[in-house]
Fold Probable manganese-dependent inorganic pyrophosphatase.
Amino acid sequence: MEKELVFGHQNPDTDAIGTAIAFSYLQNRLGYNTEAVALGEPNDETTYALKKFGFKAPRVIKEAAPEVKAVMLVDHNEPQQSVSDIDKVKVTHVVDHHRIMNFNTADPLYYRAEPKGCTSTIVWKMFNENNVEIPEKLAGLMLSAIISDTLLLKSPTTTDEDKEAVEALAKIAGVDYKEYGLAMLKAGTNIDDKSEEELIDLDAKSFELNGHNVRVAQINVVDLSDALKRKDAFLKAMEASSKDNNYDMFMLLVTNILDSDSEALVVGSDETKALFEKAFDKKLEDSEVKLPGVVSRKKQVVPPLTDAFNA
């Protein structure tokens, strides 16, 4: 059987990398020939999880077509979030928990999308459905992905099955998920040693909203006021990135993982800023707005933006 690559989205997070590794393992047990790769280097949080459970970071690829004819996608489906030459390879499998947008294939495929807090929860279900045992270390990595995406089960995206998966995987991995989860999340909040340019690209995704190219980035911190001391530098970096990449709007969500509150910084045209204000029914003050209780880009940011841009 010809080899296929398995990968998550660009600027990968713990779900994108951890679930690619888990899904590749499962598919190989089911008779496929796959390799988990990544579309970028792991962030600090993901690096912490990989080290904790004894995994090496997957190798990073820029293109898939020079290596394989077919690929499997996890944690994304939108082409602008995928490998640069996604149009040159066949997509045979997708496992995702996001909206489906601009996704087309020439042939039938296996596509599984469920509104769960994390893709790893869906893959956990697939292990169970196929009666494939999850190794201890892999369980820890899958657990890490769910903790990351649900902010330790506090995100509004969290479902009962996410909670069930966390408890089951923590038991297999032999860890206290609350203690480990907080340590892992905190490992990803050190922003002092990174430039503004690095931070706005660490966890960022592009969305096509009614003809507008919108970039939404997120960073997790434990002290909002300390992070926002760099506001002017963030805005400058966002303006430069927008100019270089033709973004019509760039939003940076700065989230406090301890109290689940966020503040947003926004740059763009008067039109796109007005649409942002319409989406959240809040006025930007000097390109900034408080968004209490907003922690999920998938559930609390992209849907209202989509509605406002499409109105």
About this structure: The radius of gyration is 19 Å.
